[in-house]
Amino acid sequence: MTGSDILPSHYLLSGCQWIFEDGVAFADIEVLDGKIKEIRRNGSIETTDPDCIIFPMKGKLVTYGLCDVHVHLRQPGFEAKETIKTGSSAALNGGFTAVCAMPNLNPTPDTAEHIGEELKYIKEDAAINVYPYASITIDRKGRELVDMEALMEYAVAFSDDGSGVQSEDMMRKAMEEAARLDVIIAAHCEVNDLLKGGYIHDGEYCKANGHKGICSESEWGQIERDLRLAEETGCRYHVCHISTKESVELIRQAKKRGVKVTCETGPHYLVFCDEDLKDEGRFKMNPPIRSSEDRDALIEGIKDGTIDCIATDHAPHTADEKSRGLKGSAMGVVGLETAFGVCYTHLVETGMISIQRLIELMCLNPRHIFRLNVEGEANFTVFNLEHKWKVDPEKFHSMGKATPFEGMELTGKPETVIFKGKRFDLIS
Predict the structure, then answer these.
(1) Which tens digits make up the pLDDT trace of 243-285?
(2) Is 202 designated active site?
(3) Residues 6 or more apart from 19 whose CB is under 8 A from it?
(4) Predicted TM-score of the model (pTM)
């Protein structure tokens, strides 16, 4: 970021492109005292206020700030990897004004006291809106349900992310309580008994290079169980980072039956397949990058509405932890600062989806599903869709530098973020 400016209390974003329900159109946006006063389609807003400042947008796309419902900010407990300050700065640099922070922390946010520690750091250091998850079970160990009612006022949703809830009885109890309270269970789906020491997809690259593989059923098997439980309980159920073709089809059919299920996938699953792997830690994450057939099924799920959100699963580690190849490196890659450019380049510019659909996936749907819309809030992202750039991890604001997109040439980048009365310029 090149710096920030305090905006006047009354201003106009003039001549921008805005996404309406029926498509993209030119518009003027008037903001007064931090709230959206009017968005006028195909017309100029005129004001008699001499203090109103007009900012010509010159046809740039403006949206509500991007929203990522799956990030790891590592604080408290793992500050050598990331902090609230560095992670939220990375999010801002990627065009996000809201993120949801996962609960694999120390202490685990499983009580009001523990989540209060995380909220203290958020209040002190967050550059944008950060909404914490609470865990589903005490210390994410799958044995004892948290007091959801006591935590729901602090938590955006409940997840044991980083591990799947292995016990069907425990997940049923969690879903029954979540249904009673009308809160979301966001599940990392993984059957531990099927992992067998694997660390990349059990595909052709794995077999050809002597690695241990993770089978697809370790993911979709638990999704299948959870969809049955969600259907029984009426719970609002969100599936994290799906990566297999079977997962897409299971969720597609569950939606047709009326199950209250939503899901997300990550940019890396939509671009790479296991044939692209290199024996480098920056290609290691959980779930792993899978086959070309899986990637194609995920893209089809993006296109037909089965997949609701694109979320980065931003998971920073230290350089040492990511320096040990596919076998020895920690699971997880960073993604906040590359997400929009990657998705715009590989999905929109190729004609797979429209820019309107991409903004639904990265902004509107996440806010709607997790109820993060703030009525009239004037937090925006301005995009330069012609800007060409190369992914250079050394320029990241995140402490984590491991990305499979390193060196990739991209088109499209957030240019400016407007957040809580300040304007942040992102492109130097």
Answers:
(1) 999 999 999 999 999 999 999 999 999 999 999 999 999 999 9
(2) no
(3) 61, 63, 355, 356, 359
(4) 0.97
